Amino acid sequence: MGFDKPSLKGRALRLLAQREHSRAELQRKLASHEETPGELAQALDELQARGFIDEQRVIESVIHRRAARLGASRVRQELQAKGLPAEAVAQAVDGLRGSELERAREVWRKKFGRAPADAADWARQARFLVARGFDAGVARRIIGDAGCDDMP
Question: Do residues 62 and 83 make contact, with C-beta atoms less than 8 angstroms apart?
Answer without folding.
Answer: no
